[in-house]
C-alpha cells in the first residue's frame, strides 16, 4: 500500500490561518484518519465481516414536484437506487468560481484539476426523477428558519455545497457568513434564514471538538455527553446529522466523567460499541429536547472513500488519484463503508421512531460509492509543503475522502431538498 508506507507526519494545524482569511473556518484535518486507516488497514481487513444486509429499508414516499417522465408509475420511488447519467446540459448546478463561499478543500478546478467531467453527472433514480433544485423555493421554505448541519468535515462539504446552490439567487449585500466557536452560519438576510454548520465530528463530546485544533491522536470520547453541543442546535427547524469516519478505528477510549474531573473513568472499548452508545445519547437528546412536530430530522449515511484501487479493478497501490469516470458496476461497495455501523444507525433510528420521533436516513452511501472520480485527490489546498517523496508519487497524498464541488454533495442536497418538500 503506497499510502500506508509513507506514513508521513499528518498535517498539523497550519494552513488554518489561510482558511480563516476566507472567513469560513473549514478545518477538516481528516488527514489523521487516513494514516490511521492505513495503519489499521491490516486489522480491518481481518476484522471486516461483510454483513449482507438484505433489508431494503428504503423510504418510499410521494414525490411532490417531479414528473415521472422516464419510467414507472408516478408516486412511490426509492430515490437512492439508481445510476449516474452524464448530463452536461444541466450539470454543474453552479460554477466553482461563481460560488462566493467555495472552500479551498473542494475547489478542485482552482487547484489544477483538468478533467472536469466529475461536475457533469446527474443522479437518475430508477423509476422516477429527482425534483429540480429550486433555490428560491428552498429559501422561501426556510424563511425565518434555521437549517443546521451537524457533524464532521463531510457534512461541512455538504454545507458548502448547499450555500453554493443558494448563493446565486441571493445578491451579495443580502448574505453573510458568521462564525462563533463551533457554529458557522450562512445568513440569507432577505429571508431571515440561517443555514448553519456545527462542528462535532463524533456528535457527542470528545477531545476533537475544537473547530480548529482537533487533530488529536489519542482520541477520547464522552459517549454520554451531548448537551454542550446540542444546546446550540436544538432549536433548529431542520437538522441534518452525520458521524462516521471519526469512529473508524478498532477501539475507542471512552471517558465517564468530565475532562476536568481527576476521577474521570476511562475505558477502551470496541469502536462500534462506542458508536452505539453515542448514538443512543444522541437519540435520547432528540427524544426529550426536540419538538418532532416542528423539526425535520435527517441523518446522512456514511460517505464512502476510495483508497483501494483493487476494489474497482486497478492496481492495488492506486487510489482515487487519476480517476476520471464513475464506477459502473452495479452495487459496487468498498470496504471503507461498514455495514455494521450502518445497521447501528438504522437500529437507533428505528427505536427512536417507535418512541415517536422520526429521523429520515438519507442513504447516500451506495450512490456515492460509484464516484471514485469525485474526490479532490491532489487538487486541493495542501496544508504542509509536500516532500519530494510525495511529489514523486501523487497518490500517496491524495484526498480520497472529501469531494470536489460542484460534485457529489450537490446530489446529496438535491436528495435532502426532495425530502424537505416531501412532507
Ligand atoms: C442503504 O442502501 C444500501 C444499499 O443500497 C442498503 O444495503 C442499506 O441497507 C441501506 N441502509 C439504510 C440505513 O437504509
Ligand atoms: C408534468 O407533466 C404534465 C403533463 O405531461 C405537464 O403538464 C406539467 O407541466 C408537468 N409538471 C412539471 C412540474 O414538470
Ligand atoms: C457535452 O458533451 C457532449 C458529448 O460529450 C459534447 O459533444 C458537447 O460539446 C458537450 N457540451 C458542453 C456544453 O460541454
Ligand atoms: C422556483 O420556485 C419559485 C418559488 O416557488 C417559483 O416562482 C419559480 O417559478 C421556480 N422556478 C422554476 C424554474 O421552477
Ligand atoms: C428570524 O428568524 C429567527 C429564527 O431563526 C426568529 O427567531 C426570528 O424571530 C426571526 N425574525 C424575524 C424578524 O422574523
Ligand atoms: C457566541 O456564542 C456565545 C455562546 O454560545 C454567546 O454567548 C455569544 O454572544 C456569541 N457571540 C456572538 C458574537 O454571537
Ligand atoms: C496518472 O495519469 C497521468 C497522465 O495520464 C500518467 O502519466 C500517470 O502515470 C498516471 N499516474 C498514475 C499513478 O496512474
UniProtKB/TrEMBL annotation:
Swiss-Prot/TrEMBL keywords: Golgi apparatus, Membrane, Signal-anchor, Transmembrane, Transmembrane helix
Top-rank taxon, per record: Eukaryota
Claim: Transmembrane helix is one of the keywords in the record: yes
Domain called Trichome birefringence-like C-terminal: residue spans: 130-418
GO CC field: Golgi membrane
Transmembrane segments: 37-57
Domain Trichome birefringence-like N-terminal: 76-129
Localization annotation: Golgi apparatus membrane
GO molecular function: xylan O-acetyltransferase activity
A family per Pfam: PMR5N
Record's bilayer topology term: Single-pass type II membrane protein
Matches recorded under InterPro entries: TBL (IPR029962), TBL_C (IPR026057), TBL_N (IPR025846)
Family under the similarity heading: Belongs to the PC-esterase family. TBL subfamily.
Protein name: Protein trichome birefringence-like 1
Organism: Iris pallida
Source taxonomy: Eukaryota, Viridiplantae, Streptophyta, Embryophyta, Tracheophyta
Amino acid at each position: 500500500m503506497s499510502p500506508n508506507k509513507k506514513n508521513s507526519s499528518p498535517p498539523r494545524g497550519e494552513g488554518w490561518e489561510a482558511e480563516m482569511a476566507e472567513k469560513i473556518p473549514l478545518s477538516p484535518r481528516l488527514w489523521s484518519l487516513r494514516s490511521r486507516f492505513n495503519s489499521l488497514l491490516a486489522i480491518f481487513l481481518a476484522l471486516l465481516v461483510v454483513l449482507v444486509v438484505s433489508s431494503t429499508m428504503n423510504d418510499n414516499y410521494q414525490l411532490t414536484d417531479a414528473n415521472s417522465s422516464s419510467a414507472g408509475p408516478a408516486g412511490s420511488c426509492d430515490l437512492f437506487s439508481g445510476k449516474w447519467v452524464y448530463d452536461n446540459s444541466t450539470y454543474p448546478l453552479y460554477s466553482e468560481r461563481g460560488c462566493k463561499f467555495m472552500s479551498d478543500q473542494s475547489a478542485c478546478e482552482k487547484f489544477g484539476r483538468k478533467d472536469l467531467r466529475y461536475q457533469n453527472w446527474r443522479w437518475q433514480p430508477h423509476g422516477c426523477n429527482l425534483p429540480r433544485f429550486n433555490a428560491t423555493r428552498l429559501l422561501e421554505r426556510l424563511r425565518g428558519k434555521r437549517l443546521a448541519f451537524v457533524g464532521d468535515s463531510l457534512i461541512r462539504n455538504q454545507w458548502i455545497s448547499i450555500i453554493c446552490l443558494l448563493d446565486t439567487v441571493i445578491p451579495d449585500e443580502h448574505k453573510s457568513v458568521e462564525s462563533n466557536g463551533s457554529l458557522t452560519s450562512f445568513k440569507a438576510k432577505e429571508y431571515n434564514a440561517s443555514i448553519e454548520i456545527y462542528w462535532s465530528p463524533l456528535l457527542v463530546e470528545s477531545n476533537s471538538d475544537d473547530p480548529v485544533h482537533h487533530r488529536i491522536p489519542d482520541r477520547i470520547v464522552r459517549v454520554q455527553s451531548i448537551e454542550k453541543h446540542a444546546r446550540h442546535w436544538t432549536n433548529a427547524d431542520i437538522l441534518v446529522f452525520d458521524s462516521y469516519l471519526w469512529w473508524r478505528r478498532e477501539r475507542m477510549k471512552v471517558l465517564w466523567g468530565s475532562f476536568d474531573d481527576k476521577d474521570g473513568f476511562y475505558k477502551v472499548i470496541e469502536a462500534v460499541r462506542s458508536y452505539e452508545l453515542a448514538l443512543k445519547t444522541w437519540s435520547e437528546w432528540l427524544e426529550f429536547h426536540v419538538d418532532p412536530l416542528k423539526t425535520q430530522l435527517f441523518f446522512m449515511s456514511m460517505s464512502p472513500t476510495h483508497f483501494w484501487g483493487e476494489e474497482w479493478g486497478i492496481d492495488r497501490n492506486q487510489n482515487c488519484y487519476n480517476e476520471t469516470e464513475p464506477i459502473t458496476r452495479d452495487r459496487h461497495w468498498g470496504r471503507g463503508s461498514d455495514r455494521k455501523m450502518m445497521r447501528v444507525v438504522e437500529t437507533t433510528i428505528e427505536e427512536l421512531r417507535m418512541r415517536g420521533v422520526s429521523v429520515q436516513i438519507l442513504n447516500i452511501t451506495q450512490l456515492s460509492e460509484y464516484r471514485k472520480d469525485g474526490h479532490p485527490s491532489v487538487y486541493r489546498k495542501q496544508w504542509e509543503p509536500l516532500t519530494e517523496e510525495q511529489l514523486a508519487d501523487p497518490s500517496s497524498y491524495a484526498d480520497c475522502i472529501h469531494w470536489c464541488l460542484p460534485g457529489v454533495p450537490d446530489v446529496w442536497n438535491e436528495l435532502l431538498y426532495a425530502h424537505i418538500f416531501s412532507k
